Amino acid sequence: MNFISKQDIDVAEHNYEKNTQGTNQRHGPLDGLLIADFSRVLAGPYCTMLLGDLGATVIKVESPSGDDTRAWMPPERDGVATYYLAINRNKRSVILDFNNPADLQLARELAARADVFIENFKPGGLKRFGLDYDAVQQRNTGIIYASISGFGTAQGASLPGYDLIVQAMSGLMSLTGDPDGPAYRSGISVFDVMAGLHAAIGILAALNHRNHTGEGQHVEVSLFASALSGMVNQTSAYVAGGIIPTRMGNAHPSLFPYEPLPTADLELIIAAGNNRQFSKMCEILDLPELPRDPRFANTKDRNRNRDALRPLLVERLRTRTAQEWFRRLSAAGVPCGPINNIEGGIAFAREIGLHPVVEVGAGDDALPMIRHPISFSLTPPRHKLPPPALGQDNEQIRAWLSQTPRIDPQELKTTRGTSEQN
Q: Which of 8, 192, 364, 365 is catalytic?
């Protein structure tokens, strides 16, 4: 594996940004779509940011008090929570108070014009405002209406949809932590993020169906269903195998070595998932006899005899630092990696040419953000608009919604309001 200097990294990132954000770049793959974003907090806003990066016009509808995550700090940047900033670029913000008849009418008009409507109110919560699927679909038959809930719309409809509660009730926390220790939550709101991704998949699939048939439809995602699907092998262990998985710390139930192992200084993750990788690892560690030992000859044997194998590996790993082993093992094709903090993770992404950080906006509004995770050979994502201040685009969007006959939503892309209402 080749590693490059910080100076080379800076030059490469500048050139990459110049090439991918040039004025002659093609429109995004979702250019021309209008998304009415009635969601807040994480799952919905993450979904709509990804779609906005791909060219969709996203109008973020907020109450007078704004998205809750605006105030979720520390940490913050210039008085705004970095939580909010992380998931709200490429959007325009308008304040609409549903208790105000004029504002409610504008909300309904936005729903009537949109290609996609996304919300994460408690199931049934928008019905009294005439913004539920049935009401919106009557005026806009082609609407793709996406709803994100915590526990679905049946008996779980009244349950609050917080990620931490879903982590607990789905079983994830029972899998996270040391075998004899307490259950732990994930370091991120993993099922909020997963539900946002599932919502994006559902929206894109429904749009494809509409392109073929002209039919809109209601797309429903719940954090709990996303959790059960996202726990993949662990839920399958119970459903298909009758086994209830338990906490194993950082160990894997079916593979070894597949966990952190101590070196001369820090721990190193080694994930030798097959016989070839195990043999190559033993070659680099100068332990050529281990692959021929019948206790360690195949995956099942190594897993069964992990208590015997582990000290043999650790004894050799302690002779070098984690970074030394990382470079030697990686060069030989053995999957491994040091346990970085977030700073180290971003630094390594730069080192291997992933260009993880992008400047969104210009001048005083410029904001460093994590780049969209998908690359396209013809229609790359755009990182144009920094996350909006509350009601930043009120004047423009209200004027557009009040226009008759309707004006193409592409008009919203020409300028951006500068006013801020708090």
A: 192
